[in-house]
Amino acid sequence: MPEAPRQDSSTQPTDEELRTLDAHWRAANYLAAGQIYLLANPLLTEPLRPEHIKPRLLGHWGTSPGLNLVHTHLNRVIKNRALDALCIWGPGHGGPSVLANSWLEGSYSETYPDVTRDAQGMELLMRQFSFPGGVPSHVAPEVPGSIHEGGELGYSLAHAYGAALDHPGLLVACVIGDGEAETGPLAASWHANKFLDPVHDGAVLPILHLNGYKIANPTVLSRLPQSELDALLRGYGHEPIHVSGDDPAAVHRAMAQAMDTALDRIAEAQRAAREEGVTERPHWPVIVLRTPKGWTGPAEVDGEPVEGTWRSHQVPLAGVRDNPDHLRQLEAWLRSYRPEELFDAEGRPVANVLACVPEGSRRLGATPYANGGLLVRDLPIPSLDDFAVPVDKPGTTLHEPTRVLGDLLAQVMRDTADRRDFRLVGPDETASNRLQAVFDASGKAWQAGTLDVDEHLDRHGRVMEILSEHLCQGWLEGYLLTGRHGLFSCYEAFVHIVDSMVNQHIKWLRTSRRLPWRAPIASLNYLLTSHVWRQDHNGFSHQDPGFVDHVLNKSPEVVRVYLPPDANTLLSVADHALRSRDYVNVVVAGKQPCFDWLSMDEARVHCARGAGIWDWAGTEDGSREPDVVLACAGDVPTQETLAAAHLLRRHLPDLSVRVVNVVDLARLLPREEHPHGMNDFEYDGLFTTDKPVIFAYHGYPWLIHRLAYRRTGHQHLHVRGYKEAGTTTTPFDMVVRNDLDRYRLVMDVIDRVPGLAVRATAVRQRMADARTRHHAWIREHGTDLPEVAEWNWNA
């Protein structure tokens, strides 16, 4: 049983300790402001001149003093209590503060040795901020100790809870800006405390920073009466602790007391759960910090109030190079921190400034939890042969691919039961997506009330279900970034809810790959099922395959998209995805019964190729080039393509047909555009340069054209896919409505192979008649034609 952190409520800060805390805070404020403004003269050893100022003033001052206060006081409790801690900085534009604090504690200079902890390094620290060739204004991957950029607001608290899961000795502090608190994802994230296991998980300490304003408007929570805000937070299951004021000495004392009180409550809740077996859900503390926006900055500029208003959000003094009054005001502002007391003659922080800073890996900028690749272990994935379905003849038996995968995931859950470093997340759809075998190995995490009718709820479970795709994504990102593994299962149409979140994660990974000190983390794996072609029962609202288009627009070194056509290929793809590092893997696979095409050995080889010819499905004999290529990607398109090939064998036996199946969609891209792309020789050998290619694709057909538009034979490429023709109907009618059905594919072959339009007119008419019979049949019987419903490859 993990031990709870020790309590330390008897330790009250002395006046001397408060002075050292204030010194550290002032030093951080000075460095934060300096990064926004200064190009040179970092210690103000001479009067400020315009040439000391950056030509473009970028950055955000308003949130910086509050973030510096939090960092300073986290240092104190981490040091005093010997805590392992991580902080999520929700106000993403708080980059100056986190950079300043990591420089003060020395972790920045250890990571970037040229930015030394002296005057020369201070000048470089200030110069590089939001400067060409330097570092961004956000708390980006380049910043030691960070796992959350915050360029897009709303995800800090979800990331914090994801980081705390299965890290029982970790404290995750999370600063939530009051602007961010207005977002939907953050509002949902307050419910994450109902999933936090006080026995096996760490603790999350939310710090709601109410400085009153966004970029141009007041914030909602800052204008609520304290009683109303308290009622809101208590309703979410938190016990608020308030810190308010603008007098630094009073705020330091109140913040120290608040931190001690919060951590004592956390330690007691964990001790009670771990040592006494208490199962009642704790009401975790939250600190509500009210300080002025732009605190300690200019009170007034050009006759307008600035400190404590929205005007301090970004750059309070904008015309410093051209306006002598602004320059004088800036110098007075910077000197108000008394830098000569904070740094010695060489620019090194003095002892008082560093008195509160922890040592070694307990420094927030040096914690290994913010560089999860240092902690990650290979996932124990069992042999696929133990879960593979037997395939004696292709296209004869049927299995539900995701149900087969569920058995594999259940074994992974069992094999990580002691390690607790694998989680499955999804929005209330684990069983719906046929993955319910995992419940034999782990229940669903749940700390709220239970009823006798409930199933699979478990206080220590590692399956995470909540009806918020944002939370699922945020939890998993925080989990992966701190050194663990996971899978996100979602209905294909609704994964779009996290479009912008995956965009941010991809950008994070792309940047991290360029930083040698960041170790690779486990990939973010999506399983998209309940897909467009088998949402015939739910209808048009549930039919959208466009997430793949969104992802393939992103950094090619990071993104991977797989469309396994059957159960064994899904096992092979999942095995690869779960073992991979630093990718975003999108796997699209059905949950409904699907034909088994390949044995496990064949599936491994086919998935390794990514795209290949299925010799057994075509009719080419090697003596000449094929007359036509039938290509497919996705389970339903593969079935329709094979059914079309079957019809061509029967009705046009002299036609030479090649069947190509694509599992790895990026294979269609040129090699120079994606690491998995084919060179022109490979592509032309597979698809030919001058023969018609009829491509049945799972999603929007124009994506295939976009991927292959530079290929020699692109003018011969004809793609069928989903074209927003959906409704509640039969499964086969969905493909007919979108012209992806077997009969239409045969008609396409006849229309595009030279000479067939005249020779095979009767066959084409037969195909068109079959579509007409289909329309009449489903309206009378409500089911698909028997020749479709009962079809198999060996019929």
From TrEMBL:
CDD domains: TPP_PK. Pfam families: XFP, XFP_C, XFP_N. GO terms for molecular function: aldehyde-lyase activity; magnesium ion binding. Keywords: Lyase, Thiamine pyrophosphate. The keyword Signal does not apply. Residues 14-374 form the Xylulose 5-phosphate/Fructose 6-phosphate phosphoketolase N-terminal domain. Its EC number is 4.1.2.-. The keyword Lyase applies. It comes from the Bacteria. This is Probable phosphoketolase. It comes from Streptomyces swartbergensis.
